[in-house]
Amino acid sequence: MVLSESFVNYSRSRDLSYSEVACVTVLTWDVLVTLSEEIDLIWRRRGWTPAKILYYIARYLPWLFQLALLAINVNGTTGLAFTSSQCATWQVVQGVLLQVIVTTVDVILVTRVYALYSRNRYLLLLLGSLFLAELTSLCYILVVVTPRLTYNDECYVTSSPSVFQYYWMISLAFETVLFVLTIVKFFDAVKQGWGKGPIMQQFVTDGTWAYTLIFLVMLVNMMLYKYVHSTLTGICYTWLLVVMSFAGSRLVLNPRRSSASYYNSTYGSELEMSHMSSFGHFSPRARDLGPGIMVTIERITDEPEWGKA
């Protein structure tokens, strides 16, 4: 009986290790396939804009985190052993890094919605209040949950307190609010005649698949932490890191690619994009481009400038 239980635990640890290897492989592949676009649209842009900082955090922090998890946990082959206090410290580190990653992606999503609504200050106040409430709640839950996690000798989480489910529920609720606001604005834009432009279509498409991926992975994590009490409890934790990196980076890259392609073909200028807005905030020459949404220009590296006569 003891031998059978040991074999089951070993098998579960092995499956979790295989999952972590798969996560690192997928994320490394994703980093490599977007590297050329990243160089053109991120690295070569002058200065350190908020969008660039958010991109680097969303893109590389989950990847580095995954590599650390891989080095520490790969099926016990690293030869590393941990005391109970070391495992507790490592769980705290994981909790902090998870919250930084989730918060970064949330800021990207909030910025997109704020820009979509033409920088409406009242909406920003509402979203800012919801965001702070979400952030405070998530941090509090992590503080309560982390000391009460149980784990095995390899520092794999085997069970969590029931309150941990609220971490996922609050995150899902906030993501849903942002998604609903995006869809509402999209239908409003379609009625006004500027919702079928390529940039708007790309904007809504990115928001939809990003929301769907994040929602599904968070939902699966919530179910696993609630109902599974074994080494497999956290098997989808690393997949959440993959999804956050994948979604967060593309929510910054894709609008830049679409906008740079459109405006470079129109003006032959390299543009630094900061946010989306309706044409109503621009000069007459910008409005002459026709119905649609566009990207506010933060910097133009060559002529012409729209504000000039």
UniProtKB/TrEMBL annotation:
<feature type="domain" description="DUF6533">
    <location>
        <begin position="18"/>
        <end position="62"/>
    </location>
</feature>
<dbReference type="Pfam" id="PF20151">
    <property type="entry name" value="DUF6533"/>
</dbReference>
<feature type="transmembrane region" description="Helical">
    <location>
        <begin position="166"/>
        <end position="187"/>
    </location>
</feature>
<feature type="transmembrane region" description="Helical">
    <location>
        <begin position="231"/>
        <end position="253"/>
    </location>
</feature>
<keyword id="KW-0472">Membrane</keyword>
<feature type="transmembrane region" description="Helical">
    <location>
        <begin position="53"/>
        <end position="72"/>
    </location>
</feature>
<keyword id="KW-1133">Transmembrane helix</keyword>
<feature type="transmembrane region" description="Helical">
    <location>
        <begin position="92"/>
        <end position="115"/>
    </location>
</feature>
<dbReference type="InterPro" id="IPR045340">
    <property type="entry name" value="DUF6533"/>
</dbReference>
<protein>
    <recommendedName>
        <fullName>DUF6533 domain-containing protein</fullName>
    </recommendedName>
</protein>
<keyword id="KW-0812">Transmembrane</keyword>
<feature type="transmembrane region" description="Helical">
    <location>
        <begin position="208"/>
        <end position="225"/>
    </location>
</feature>
<feature type="transmembrane region" description="Helical">
    <location>
        <begin position="122"/>
        <end position="146"/>
    </location>
</feature>
